[in-house]
Amino acid sequence: MAKVLVLYYSSYGHIETMAKAVAEGARAAGAQVDIKRVPETAPDAVAKAAHFKLDQEAPIATIADLENYDAVIIGVGTRFGRLASQMAAFLDQAGGLWARGALHGKVGGAFTATATQHGGQETTLFSIITSLLHFGMVVVGMDYGHAGQMTLDEVTGGSPYGASTITGGDGSRQPTENELTGARYQGQKIAETAIKLHG
Ligand SMILES: Cc1cc2nc3c(=O)[nH]c(=O)nc-3n(C[C@H](O)[C@H](O)[C@H](O)COP(=O)(O)O)c2cc1C
Predict the structure, then answer these.
(1) Of the residues 18, 53, 79, 121, which should be mutated to test ligand 1's pocket, given the most ligand atoms within 8 Å of the CB?
(2) Does the keyword section mention Transferase (predicted)?
(3) CA 66 to CA 74: how far, in whole Å?
(4) Hey, which end of the chain has fewer CB within 10 Å, N or C?
(5) 10 among the known binding-site residues?
(6) pLDDT the model gives residue 5
(7) Mutation test of ligand 1: which of 167, 170, 173, 179 has the most ligand atoms closer than 8 Å to its C-beta?
(8) Residues of the chain where predicted confidence (pLDDT) is lower than 70
């Protein structure tokens, strides 16, 4: 059975919700799925002052975990048009894995969130995908089988590069059904690819 890791960082819970949907999709494809998050690097006082969601139940990942999965799907919100530093700091510890080629041929994917529609979803997804390619991973995005990414009837995240959600400037908008469907779809597609390559 293929093993899939959904690895995320979330300050306010939007990416946490998307991670659960990605995991649901991967499980539906028949993979064994774990959800883990990366450590918070902001000082406690800063995290509390900024009202970070500090009660997230997912266990904290170690860099060594990455080697134990056939697919790693990374979710992290936008910071100034690229991935948040908490995730970058985690991935920057993967030099040893990179040097050994330990992640070559594993399947990877990315999902994200921004406050605004044009606040950098695609650039953030590519900032994640760039790292996945450096690790030698096979990147799977979100194909147009998730037709909901094409709708003009509602504001929605989702693109060929990965699932996404839009939170609003005050974070009050939660992932919509269409965005969660996209997240499930991408999780399923990545798990199916991992099963074909490694299962
Ligand atoms: C320092 C900082 C920079 C941000 N930069 C952007 C940005 O460039 N574009 C944007 O649309 N949202 C930006 N945001 C909003 C976050 O992307 C948004 O709060 C996050 O993706 C929500 O996901 P989460 O609830 O999982 O943390 C920024 C937020 C912070 C705290």
Answers:
(1) 79
(2) no
(3) 11
(4) N
(5) yes
(6) 99
(7) 167
(8) none
Per the CB < 8 A criterion, the answer to whether 26 and 190 are in contact is yes
Query: From ligand 1's centre to the CA of 71, what distance in Å?
Result: 26
The CATH architecture that domain 3-198 belongs to is: 3-Layer(aba) Sandwich (3.40)
Q: Is 35 annotated as a binding residue?
A: no
- pLDDT for res 199: 83
SS3 content of the chain, % helix, strand, coil (to 5): 40, 20, 40
pTM over cut 0.85 = yes
Name 4's Cβ contacts closer than 8 Å, sequence gap at least 6: 23, 26, 31, 32, 33, 34, 69, 70, 71, 72, 73, 187, 190, 191, 194
